[in-house]
């Protein structure tokens, strides 16, 4: 028995209404899931170990020996797994996984055989610079969170509360170790270390 035009019309109407109802929900869920997914090193700017030369010079100087990786007492330095031979097997730090803790010995710089990691003091290190997102920081919701400040190995010369009781990063003292990012309890992180742009 053939179905009437009215039946087809009703089905089309309900199908379209259902799609309009479900699609915004699905898009919202996708957005929320993406915010919590880990970002791979290939999808974000790389942080190099302490003492690293500017990126292009570093890539041309690094021997990919792995000595810095083996010597790191915090296991913060990892080997980059990439197909690009220019980047493959170079050392990097992912603060979400494990930040640099600015150890007393700074052994990674001592064992580098090529000079790709220069021997610097703790105060001279410039892995990157932390940036705060006030929109997601718990302090903007009147929650007295101090994880990033209390955990910083450089202390209040690198990060503190400003006059408005907001987290303030001091470029003159921040070495970009990533401890603040690692300890931040929000998802996505409200404080992220970004590599310094060298002109």
Explain the overall architecture.
Mean pLDDT is 86; it is low at 24-43. The chain has helices at residues 5-36, 55-61, 67-71, 107-111, 147-151, 179-183, and strands spanning 77-79, 91-93, 129-132, 159-161, 167-169, 191-194. The chain contains six helices and six strands, in the order αααββαβαββαβ. The termini are far apart. The protein has one domain (44-194). The strands form three sheets. Strands 1-2 form a two-stranded antiparallel ribbon. The longest helix is centred in the first third of the chain and has 32 residues, at 5-36. It is of the alpha+beta class.
Quick synopsis:
This protein is of the alpha+beta class and 199 residues long. Helices cover 30% and strands 10% of the residues.
Overall SS class: alpha+beta
Poorly predicted runs of 5 or more residues:
24-43
The span between the termini is 76 Å
Number of domain modules: 1
Please, how many helices? 6
Q: What proportion of the residues form beta strands (DSSP E)?
A: 5-15%
What sequence of helices (H) and strands (E) makes up the elements?
Answer: HHHEEHEHEEHE
How is the topology of this model organized?
Elements: H1 5-36, H2 55-61, H3 67-71, E1 77-79, E2 91-93, H4 107-111, E3 129-132, H5 147-151, E4 159-161, E5 167-169, H6 179-183, E6 191-194
Antiparallel strand pairs: 1-2, 3-6, 4-5
Key terms:
199 residues; 6 strands; two-stranded antiparallel sheet; flat; alpha+beta; 30% helix
